[in-house]
Amino acid sequence: MTTSRLTMPILRNMPLILFVLVFVLFSVLDERFFAIGNFSNIVESSAFVGLLAVGMTAVLLTGGIDLSVGATMYITAAVVGLLLQQDVNYVLAICAGIVAGTAWGFLNAFLIAKVGLVPFVATLATLTMGRGVGLLLTESRQFILPPEMAYAATDVFGVPLPVVVFGIVVAVAVVFLRYTAMGRQIYAMGNDLDAAKKAGLNVVRLTGSVYVISGFCAALAGVIAISQQGSVSAGIGEGVEFRAIAAAVLGGTSLFGGVGAVFPGTVIGVLLVQMISTGLVYLQIDLYLQDMIAAAVIFFAVFIDAQRMRILSRLERRNIRVEKGDAEPPGAKPVPAPS
Amino acid sequence: MTDLILQFQGISKAFFGVPVLKGIDLDVERGTTVGLVGENGAGKSTLMNILGGVVPATAGRMLLNGEIFEPGDPRQADAAGIAFIHQELNLFTNLSIAENFFISDFPTMGRVPLLNRRDLNHRAREYLAMVDLHVSPDMPVERLAPGERQLVEVAKALSLDARIIIFDEPTTSLTARETDRLFELIGRLHEDGKTILYISHILGDVMRLSDAIAVLRDGNLVASGPREEFTIDRMISSMVGRDIGNLYPERSAAPTEDLMLEVRNLSKAGISHQINLKLHKGEVLGVFGLMGSGRSELAQIIFGLEDFDEGEVLINGVAADKLSPTRNIRGGMAFVTENRREEGLMMEATVADNLTIAALPNYTSRIVKRVRNSGLATAVKETVEILTIKVNDAFKNEVKGLSGGNQQKVVLGKWLMTEPSILIIDEPTRGVDVGAKYEIYEIIDQIAARGTAVLFISSEIEELTGMCDRIMVMGQGEVLGTFDRADFDTEAILRTAFREHVA
């Protein structure tokens, strides 16, 4: 079956292929899109969604979900903005904001791991609650940030600071998930919760930890987002959970837990999502239509991904018979690329 | 002077006031293999769960090496050198073999909390060599065959330096060859002085492996002693508490000539090749084949769960251009899957809900499709009675509380209620004890006597020769031969099945 020999690598590398396809498509539609300057622009603007997606990947690996990331960003932004109004040193203000955002992650961790609420419901509640807290803190005012908060525009060895932060977080997440006991245990728990309990793993601590990680990532994303915007407004982080989840899923992370990786998976997913939004701007699509089109494209990509998984699992099933012209011995499965 | 590694003294256990174990006294000598047999619900698993720290005993005590042993959780049992290899394996399929070994205690690089992968894989390779499994420790478990996974589970037990290894029905998902390999390994563990507790329904295996045998019935230890004192017949009569004269019921009706299902030249790349079969009203057609012979796949194609490339499937003489489960069920076909826990039952729902799920359309009012509960309730009561399902209240009790045999009866009952014209059953007695097996055979006989055509898929040759009118033998997705009841010969059937396997 030569068709399967050809389709297997295609299906397995779908995120990357999709990425190239979308890139080529936009480049053909608008030649300005194909430029180094634009590409670095995409990378730079994906930093904050990327941070969210890294935390989201950890949460999805346990089979959970974190809908509250946007609210966490807003709380962080509100705390930073308020403190800056009081003339607090900006480094202190940022630290306080990150602590506040991470605390919101702790609240999720408590509700889900300790109280035992379903992640979807718990984080939907903390999403609404978090927005309320943000509005209460700021009294829905908008803060214009002082110039020293424009650090997002600074470069480190020629690389924009947000990209550096994103890179560091990705690196730390990769090491954490692949090379620490806790990381591997998170994968194990996502694969089989009962078996994890039987193996004596501390599932409460493991479950809780991913929501704290997600909260911390969302807080960082909040700090970067306000720095890029130069202001704190109530619109911060609205609807970002969709993009963060889409990025992680596009990168191959399963919504059912146990499957996925931050690199290259989620990173490619993030770039893909950002490229779609940027591309639509370039094409000067009606502003009111952009969200709809972006959502449709992402939906389509996720749909393709779901199909891919189905076809993959069918192709990887063991054959009983050796068909003519099929070199594989019975029972042999094609070996997938190492993940 | 005997050296006892383990003693159960008056172990009792009750769940919600219902006694499951009633004062078990059992001594286990160091380095012996003890076969533990009994019907489902006799208390074997509960006894082992107490030893493995999964549940605490209500009364009594255990002595391990002469000292009182009260494991509070599975990890304490692990630490005491007791490994429990469950029927459903506890492996994380998304992780590598090595990671599975050390998931609760990873080796790290000294003070740095990073995994020492080299050390991890090095140690894992040693344990894999002990079970004679030569694959990379980096290999994700999901890429291993069921038999290999079992070996990994044993290797994991060895990595924990287990002195006592409990096997709970280890062969249910293994092929004949994988089973041989496991038995070889158990023999080697035995020679190394490990103490082994072996639970199985396959009494021949128990005879082959054990030094001593213990029989449980209704929470009591009814017989125990060295293997020499036992025969398979004695085990069965102790288990059941009476002599079972016949393992299979007399067939109460003969098959007719009316063709219900016909498969012509059915092929699917990599799965099936040129399959022909005819199934008549009132007939029980057995499908025998070794693991991986394509028998379950054939059933899935006929039922419409999988598509096919070539050929025809005629139901009641009508060729269907496209098969789908919905259409098949409407046309009177029913399918009892191999995997009752995952595919055939809603474990958290009541017995009544499970029984009625497929038959609901027959009990709805004409226009609004409202379910008429009175008729349904009567039908449920009837079915529970006919099938002798042991349940207090079919409308309140959840299926997960039933024993394996009773669960299987619920699956069968679900399709009985739709009164199917064609019934496909895949391994209906797997993991079911002797007594319940007989009842399931009786149900199959009755279903056939009512005029249903039954396709009976099994890897137990004896039950097919006991129950079927004809047996079709499959291998590598092909039909290798068909036997009429008059020509049934276990050896000939096996030889046919192995034809392409031995070479």
Could you describe the 3D structure shown?
- The complex is a heterodimer of chains A (339) and B (503).
- With 339 residues, chain A is mostly helical.
- Chain A has a single domain, classed as ABC transporter involved in vitamin B12 uptake, BtuC (Orthogonal Bundle), CATH 1.10.3470.
- Chain A has 13 helices and four strands.
- In chain A, the strands form two sheets. Chain A has a two-stranded antiparallel ribbon with strand order 1-4. In chain A, strands 2-3 form a two-stranded antiparallel sheet.
- The two termini of chain A are 25 Å apart.
- Chain B has 503 residues and is an alpha/beta fold.
- Chain B has three domains: 1-81 and 163-242, P-loop containing nucleotide triphosphate hydrolases (Rossmann fold); 90-161, no CATH class; 259-502, 3-Layer(aba) Sandwich (Rossmann fold), CATH 3.40.50.
- Helices cover 33% and strands 26% of the residues of chain B.
- Chain B contains 17 helices and 22 strands.
- Chain B has helices at 44-51, 74-79, 97-101, 117-130, 146-159, 176-191, 203-209, 232-240, 295-303, 325-330, 340-344, 351-356, 373-386, 404-416, 434-449, 461-467, 490-502, and strands at residues 4-15, 18-29, 33-38, 59-64, 67-68, 82-85, 108-109, 112-115, 164-168, 195-199, 212-217, 220-226, 259-268, 272-280, 284-289, 310-315, 318-319, 333-336, 422-426, 453-458, 470-475, 478-484.
- In chain B, strands 6-9-10-3-11-12 form a six-stranded mixed β-sheet, sandwiched between helices. Chain B has a six-stranded mixed β-sheet with strand order 18-19-20-15-21-22, with helices on both faces. A four-stranded antiparallel β-sheet of chain B has the order 2-1-4-5, with helices on one face.
- In chain B, helix 4 (117-130) crosses helix 5 (146-159) and helix 5 (146-159) runs parallel beside helix 6.
- Chain B is globular and about 70 Å long.
- Chains A and B meet through helix 8 and helix 9 of A and helix 2 and strand 8 of B.
